[in-house]
Design a protein that fits this description.
The structure holds 2 protein chains of 2 kinds. By secondary structure, chain A is mostly helical. Chain A has helices at 5-21, 28-52, 82-101, 109-128, 132-141, 143-153, 159-188, 193-198, 203-220, 229-236, 239-264, 266-271, 273-292, 297-316, 321-352, 363-366, 368-382, 388-403, 405-430, 447-465, 468-481; strands at 61-69, 74-80, 495-496, 499-500. The longest helix of chain A has 32 residues, at 321-352. Classes of the chains: A mainly alpha, B mainly alpha.
């Protein structure tokens, strides 16, 4: 029964999208409500996975296995551990919010809902797959619905350029990864993750394979200098597209580092740690400084996403439990705060069809509820204590300090710059002078918009006030992951027979 | 011809003076607030639009000259190189102090 949980999570939105395909486009209400019910049911199922998850086990759980190319030793193996559990839950959590975000502003509802349900199934599959080859296939296939979401439902003529840029950047990086996957398959005869964890590659092979995987994951994160596609894609995507791009798709890259690069190639990961640190810390500072000079609301949040995601890579390559757990927490936090900010921008864009900062000002007088919600997510972006980002960033910086204090010092300046651009953004939108010569009619959040924000606010506060709930599920898997680095866990816990003693 | 122009100008200024000033209109929220999302009016400003266009399309105005090349060299090559070297030195110094074998890192196989 439990082994069918993950296939059900993937199949439910897929089957739902097939059913909605046969509903006439004119039945907009049926399509909207149907999509919302299907995605909500998927979220409930993902919560079941959380409830039945055994946090003390380091093994993959809810494992489902079926032959795919049995003759070539490639199997469809699904399973989750503490690392992937919350990404599955987060994917299922954000899709209903995305559908609600496009409830009124999107005209072609049928295509919109189907694209998001397909995307949901693919994203959940990526986080559950325990076969490297199939991971690659699904990792790439996520691009297809996202390409359509940006290209069809985007806002301006420039959306086509953004969609192509998004597609080509990520695809070019991934071609190298495919070569790496083929090399692994030719050397080991398998692509099953659990078997590969036991395999040992020579030092040179590790370096080549690490670089080939890095080319793909670094584009997805995105790291400097391959980040150009992200602000463009964010700006042109519809609000829900930006939500899912920031909330989940960027995490595919860091998840790839965590699931494949670090455990499969530990020596190469150590060998390239200074390179990743240097790239990450430059990205944190550069992206933060670039954010300050942006004039487009979405670009500001997009560049701040680049900075936060490079904080994540810093934590991951600190290669100690504190840093890695902090990275996972920061990824989850960013998956809540950044969508919240994009939804705030979406609220403004839905009304005025412009994202230019110069047109806005003084919203605290005219849109008080919106301003309060926007303030909350801005504080989350700053990593204010009590919000989820604080816990993640604190742990990442602590982990990086243990590993390399110099890099930690440089990264910490990113936090200061983060506070600067976030407060500046809020100040210009919410305070400042009234600009009636640009905008003279105002409308605060309506009920639908308000209820989209409520679960996000709740989750950010929950993770910020009591993060132990999340860390409990992650501990065992992270310690198991870092076993190859022969560094004892900081609190001295030991893993015995797959259980934390 | 000139007389009709004057009449049109006078009518326009009368219209402006009769119309509610925009600031007052914005302040009067009870009249202007709407319950549902929709296309609310924004008065586009050519200066703001041009300015945003320039900021968005930096590649149209960017030129390779001595100044930009110097900035590119400093920010894109020298700074990352220095950060990398300090980072590796930090790692290796820590390992030496801890008495563990010094690890090899990319570009620094010493």
């Amino acid at each position: 029964m439990v082994s069918y949980l993950l296939p059900s999570l993937i199949l439910l939105p897929l089957v739902g999208s097939v059913i909605l395909f046969f509903v006439p486009s004119s039945s907009v209400k049926t399509i909207r409500v149907g999509g919302l019910l299907i995605s909500s049911a998927t979220f409930m199922l993902s919560l079941l996975a959380w409830v039945f998850f055994d946090p003390s086990s380091t093994k993959f759980q809810f494992v489902y296995e079926a032959p795919w190319l049995g003759t070539s030793n490639i199997y469809l193996i699904l399973g989750i551990d503490g690392i992937s559990l919350f990404f599955v839950v987060l994917s299922a959590f954000l899709i209903p919010l995305c559908l609600l975000a496009g409830w009124e502003s999107i005209e072609r509802q049928k295509e919109y809902v189907i694209a998001f349900l397909v995307l949901e199934a693919l994203m959940i599959a990526v986080f559950c797959l325990l076969d490297l080859f199939l991971f690659y296939v699904f990792f790439e296939s996520v691009l297809i619905p996202m390409f359509f979401i940006i290209g069809i439902f985007g806002s301006r003529e420039r959306k086509i350029r953004a969609a192509y840029q998004f597609f080509l950047y990520t695809l070019l990086g991934s071609v190298l990864m495919l070569l790496g996957v083929l090399m692994i398959y030719s050397q080991t005869g398998t692509t099953q993750v659990e078997l590969l964890y036991a395999a040992e590659f020579s030092e040179m092979a590790q370096i080549i394979l690490w670089l080939s995987f890095f080319a793909s994951f670094a584009v997805k994160v995105p790291m400097l200098p391959v980040h150009i596609w992200l602000p463009e894609a964010h700006v042109e995507a519809p609000t829900a597209g930006s939500v899912i791009l920031a909330g989940i798709l960027l995490k595919l890259g860091t998840y790839g580092f965590l699931r494949f690069s670090i455990p499969l190639f530990p020596d190469a990961s150590l060998y390239f740690t200074p390179l990743v640190f240097t790239m990450s810390v430059i990205a944190v500072i550069y992206a933060s400084l670039t954010t300050v000079r942006q004039v487009d609301l979405k670009k500001i949040i997009a560049y701040s996403s680049v900075a936060h995601m490079n904080f994540v890579t810093l934590g991951l390559f600190s290669l100690n439990p504190l840093g890695v757990e902090g990275s996972i927490l920061l990824m989850l936090s960013h998956g809540l705060v950044s969508p919240g900010l994009f939804l705030c921008v979406g609220v403004m864009y839905d009304r005025y069809k412009t994202r230019l900062l110069r047109y806005y000002g003084g919203s605290v007088h005219t849109m008080p509820i919106f301003s309060a919600v926007f303030l909350f997510f801005t504080m989350g972006n700053i990593s204010l204590p009590g919000t989820s980002s604080f816990v993640g960033e604190f742990m990442v910086l602590s982990g990086t300090f243990v590993s390399n204090p110099f890099i930690c010092f440089l990264a910490a300046t990113g936090m200061v710059l983060g506070a600067a651009y976030s407060l500046w953004l809020y100040n210009r939108v919410a305070f400042g002078a009234f600009k009636p010569h640009f905008i003279s009619t105002y409308s605060d959040l309506n009920r639908r918009e308000f209820y989209i924000f409520v679960p996000l606010i709740g989750a950010v506060l929950w993770m910020g006030i009591y993060p132990e709930v999340f860390l409990d599920e992650i501990h065992a898997s992270v310690y198991n992951l870092l076993e190859n680095f022969s560094r004892p866990p900081i609190d001295g816990s030991l893993v015995v027979d797959g259980k934390i003693s | 011809m000139a007389a009709s122009g004057r009449w049109i100008g006078a009518l326009r200024s009368l219209g402006r003076s009769l119309g509610q000033p925009a600031r007052q209109q914005a302040a009067d929220l009870s009249n202007t607030q709407r319950r549902h999302v929709g296309n609310l009016p924004v008065k586009p400003n050519s200066y703001v639009e041009d300015w945003a266009h320039k900021r968005e399309n930096v590649e149209l105005t960017f030129r390779f000259d001595a100044k930009t090349l110097a900035i590119l060299g400093t920010a894109g090559i020298v700074t990352p190189y220095l950060i990398y070297q300090v980072c590796v030195t930090e790692f290796q110094t820590k390992q030496q102090k801890a008495g563990v074998p010094v690890k090899k890192y990319w570009g620094r196989d010493d």
